[in-house]
Amino acid sequence: MQKLKLSHAPDRQRRVLAVHDISCIGRCSLTVALPVLSAMGFETSILPTSILSTHTGGFEGYTCRDLSGDMDPIVDHWHALGVRFDAIFTGWLGTHRHIGRLAHLLEAFEDSRAELIVDPVMGDNGRLYATLDDDYVHAMRAYCARADMLLPNLTEAALVTGTEYPGDRYDRAYVEEMLRRLLDLGARTAVLTGVSLAPERIGAVALDRAEGTLHYVDSEFIPGMWHGAGDVFASVLLGAHLRGKDTAESLRMAVRFTAACIRRTRDAGTDERLGLQFEPELAKLSSLIQEN
Ligand code: PXL
């Protein structure tokens, strides 16, 4: 097989692999990660884990085709081609079998030394998403230990660390302790999303192992079920990080961008299940490409 001709120039375009489901309707997972990372200037390869007619939040009767059986052959083909990734970004995976296949993926691309960014998409508001189960949670817990950057919301952080979901009864000390627990799993950076430390505000808090300082960025709280907001946030944060922004600046960009998309969606009044109207905001991200 003819191997791919790859650039090793320091300023070459970086290649990111996004490993999520394709929810055909409802802007989340790959239909968010792909356009956002492309707009930020990355060559974005995808490994679809499942194909669903819609995401599972608020829809009934959706279809779901499990692609876990295709993952190893896809990875083996890429490996034979000699492809390399600068970062691997995983999100909603489907079943514990998918998580098992990620071990093969990471082994195949070990030489790439790709940064592994894990959004352990499992639930929200203290509840597991439909179709996910305890086997999934256990497998995800073990998998999170491999992440360089871990991006759970409060529900997922509780599931990953095996602690109780705090509901809205938490404070800064809880958040700090949770971030330290997440770092103890092995990540270099932990980011907790959907955190409110002041009335009518919501945002995210990050802690870098090396830096040791807590960064908190928040925005106006807009009531609603903002499907895919976590995927928008994680994709922008990852893109900013890979473009060389420090944790504080990446966090600021991701919170501001997500908040702008939520405001736009709220103002449009469209069905919340369709996800965020992020497309008209994408041009704001492209300005980063001109910077470096
Ligand atoms: O955005 C999270 C997500 C991703 N993928 C699927 C989902 C959900 C949340 O419900 O159902 C299929």
Q: How would you characterize the overall build of this protein?
A:
α1 (30-39) runs parallel beside α7. With 292 residues, the chain is of the alpha/beta class. The chain is globular and about 60 Å long. It has a nine-stranded mixed sheet with strand order 3-2-1-4-5-8-9-10-11, sandwiched between helices. It has a two-stranded antiparallel sheet with strand order 6-7. The two termini are 35 Å apart. It has helices at residues 30-39, 68-81, 96-108, 134-144, 154-161, 172-184, 229-242, 247-268, 282-291, and strands spanning 15-25, 43-54, 64-66, 87-90, 115-118, 123-124, 127-128, 149-150, 189-195, 201-208, 214-220. The mean pLDDT is 96. The protein contains nine helices and eleven strands. The protein has a single domain, classed as 3-Layer(aba) Sandwich (UDP-N-acetylmuramoyl-L-alanine:D-glutamate ligase), CATH 3.40.1190. It binds 3-hydroxy-5-(hydroxymethyl)-2-methylisonicotinaldehyde. Residues 21, 23, 28-29, 52, 55-57, 92, 121, 129, 228, 230-231 line the site of 3-hydroxy-5-(hydroxymethyl)-2-methylisonicotinaldehyde.
